[in-house]
Amino acid sequence: MKFLFDRDTWQEVYDSLTKNKLRSILTMVGVWWGILLLIGLLGSARGLENSFNRLFGSFATNSVFVWGQSTGMPFKGFQEGRQVQLSLSDAIKIEENVEGIEFVVPRNITRSLVVHGFLSGTFGVYGDYPLLDQVQKKKMQYGRFINQNDIDDNKKVVVISESIYKQLFEKDAEAIGEYIQINGINFKIIGMFANDNMSGGPRADMHIPFTTFQQVYNQGDRIGWMMITGKPEFDIRQLERDAKLLLKNLNNIHPEDKRAFGSFNLGKEFGKLTGFLTGMQFLTWFVGIATLIAGVFAIGNILLITVKERTKEIGVRRALGATPFEIKRQIVVEAVFITLVAGLLGIISGGWILILIDKLAGQGPDATLVNASVSIAIVFVALIILIILGTLIGLIPAFKATSVKPIDALREE
After folding, report:
1. CA-to-CA distance for 281 and 67, rounded, in angstroms?
2. Are residues 128 and 222 in the same domain?
3. Which pTM value belongs to this model?
4. Based on the domain organization, do 402 and 291 belong to the same domain?
């Protein structure tokens, strides 16, 4: 390692690079572009992954939503086209009888006129259980979400979104503890949560206890839909099939009827997104490393030309006592140095590119690339790859340089 601190070593590297500056710069461009492409693509892929995580972050992704539609086949005396209505007892039986179920969350929704003082608006009102906050986490800014006491006592309490607060209250006004009218009935505000990004924009929603909703809107045992969450080790697609089959049995629907129940399998869709992101990262590494290898080979070719030009010089050094190992070492050092400098410039340029991407596409609630960045570990791995490739490619001109006999090198014109 002593030779790395030898001034003559770096003087030779400097002389070699400055002898033909344009060629040296063009040699480094390939590696610079390769590492820039690798950093830029990996950072963009991470930004896209962060965007998806922010979009689905509040949801238990191993979930499926199921609702009733109309039958597509006659069965047991019932005609085709019968409207299917889910019930609270359906949700309970699914939770009790389908293996692999973690949670079943029955839900209801309606749109109602909401009034506070002289301000009013029509918003979505959900009837929910406290369990919703576990499978679709609300980012509470103030107060709390619905609890079991609210359910048991049919309390007239409500949790509102930030968007509703802005429409019904003056700026900086206190909302917690205030009353608003929903469907002509006073409800006490117990909490406020940040707007949900799942819809792509501000959500004007509020949540009241499920039992209170059933009472106020005279729903009885009926529910609008249910959210079924599976345990991590179970396939959510199989749970969806099992749940639908049980619902068909409970509601006298033909087992082959595909129209009776609608569903949206969040777990399946999230799996597609995860697969896409994995494929994108693999493609990014492949393209980046392939470009790096191409750039490093360009360095090897240029060094071969340099070695050819320096044949007489190498012959003189051999004649003066320089060993083949010392000649090889010097050329490998030049290769690694060129590769590392080009790589570091590429990393710095890639960092600036990611900063620019974050400024242009990473700001605001609708950002497509959130916090596009790469970890220090990835940068470290990229540098290790550069050192290895630089060393390997430097060995080619190094062996070429020592393959010529000193006497033949001295005759070179």
Report:
1. 36
2. yes
3. 0.68
4. yes
CA distance 207 to 146: 8
11 and 74 both lie in a single domain: no
What's CA 241's distance to the chain center, in Å?
A: 28
Q: Which carries the bigger pLDDT value, residue 200 or residue 107? A: 107
The gap from C-alpha 103 to its chain's centroid, in whole angstroms, comes to 25
Write down which residue in 263, 297, 326 finishes a domain.
263
Q: Which domain holds residue 370?
A: 2-56+271-411
Q: Are residues 95 and 194 in the same domain?
A: yes
Q: What angle do CA 315, 318, 321 make, to 5 degrees?
A: 150
Give the integer Cα–Cα distance in Å for 205 and 266. Answer: 21
Q: Are 59 and 138 contacting, i.e. CB atoms less than 8 angstroms apart?
A: no
Q: 138 by DSSP, 3-state: which?
A: coil
Mean pLDDT of 126-153: 92
**Are 70 and 213 in a shared domain?**
yes
Domain count, the chain: 2
pLDDT digits over 352-387, tens only? 988 888 888 777 666 677 788 888 888 888 788 877
d(CA 152, CA 148): 6
In the block, tokens 């990004």 appear at 197
Please report the beta strands in 157-204, taking only residues with DSSP state E, as ranges in sequence order. 157-161, 179-182, 185-193
Write out the DSSP string of 212-233. Answer: HHHHHTT-TTB-SEEEEEE-TT
SS3 53: helix
* Distance separating alpha carbons of residues 90 and 69, to the nearest angstrom: 15
